[in-house]
Amino acid sequence: MQIIKDKVIIDDTFTPLADDAPLAGGDISVSLARWKNDREALLARPGKVGVRIRASDSVSDLAGDLKHIDLIELDFAEFADGRLFSQAWLLRGRYHYQGEIRAAGHYLTDQTFYLSRVGVNAFQPAKTEHLNTILANLNDFSVKYQPSIH
After folding, report:
1. Which residues on adjacent β-strands are paired with residue 113?
2. What domain of life does the UniProt record list for this protein's source (predicted)?
3. Closest Cα partner for 91 from 74, 77, 78, 107?
4. What is the pTM assigned to this prediction?
5. Per-residue pLDDT averaged across 96-106, rounded?
């Protein structure tokens, strides 16, 4: 599957792992609950690890572990919930997270510019045919009135 990362379309190297699936090698992403339960095993295995965050999760639960996490995936289950915008801002602004923050799922393509302003640097839309639209939307505005997180 392809994603946008740092304004370039690339192949995704991360495989989402279900909470009950055996740990595998390679780059994987797990739920916050799985991270909390299997942290040591996840850190001991080969490959990068990412954590999937839902709108109801708190990124403060990850604050002490961010240096070990390569990807924070913001799981947009529906486009009407804006709490993940705040989660992205907290990751960059309060916790100074330097890794990949990825918006994944059901967000509006029109929101991508604003997601990038709060720290999201990768996009995985629910429909891959939206990749080019998202890429174009990242350059929607040439003048910005408010400061961004980066």
Report:
1. none
2. Bacteria
3. 74
4. 0.91
5. 95
